[in-house]
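Pasting as-is:
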Amino acid sequence: MGNWEKEFFSVAFISYFVASCLYIGHLIWLKEKLGSWARVFTILGFLVNTLAMAARTMNAGHIPFANMYEFGMAFVWGLILLYIYIEYHHKNYSLGAFVLPVAFVLTGIFSNFYQEAHPLMPALKSNWLLIHVITAVIAYGALAISFALALMYLWKQRIEETGEEGPIMSKLPPLVTLSALVNQCIDLAVPFLTLLIITGAVWAEYAWGSYWRWDPKETWSLITWLIYAIYLHGRVSLGWRGKKAMNWAVVGFITVLFTFIGVNVLLPGLHSYALL
């Protein structure tokens, strides 16, 4: 199975693409069967994504958390797992029309960073690797969904403001439900973002003898955390609601993407092994 890792992830990519098309088709043509098939392909993609991670583990001899490609597999896996739970709980296929395209695009991006499996670098041979990356998978997966649902909120709000409501609107959750889902995802993510920074600092002290060096990855991780901390403060203390809060959620996830992908590609530093 180890030799099939790349093929498994490619099948997951195709499955997420098909699921995206079916979810969008469900929203356009209002056919429940399309939503049902979309769920099938979402679950298929998740299962094959799991096989890809298992194959990578067998190939590399370690849990696949060592570089951008490997973490990308886990990131999308966590995103889809959380989405499956949300869809099951809310019984609404329309959510997938926004979430699955995000998963599909991320899978395509991470596929471009594919590389052969290799042994862990000395700095990565630590139990902190597992703890650090699991917190990132949970946090980033939840924030990816908050981003997709914030876009859905903004789209629905704009349609309502123009007064051009049609049958599609009957399939979309109420704005208050979408807002609550975005808030719940961010509420879940922020504690794990906090743990991500703390475990990273402890691990850095273990590996490099210093808790914090203002490395680009460390700096942008802190910026990301501050953006979501401001979001929570604005929501709780300043009464941020509606468009303002959703725009902040969108900007927050763009920062997440830059922290994880942009910094690795554009701002080399102590974490440059993420591309190795």
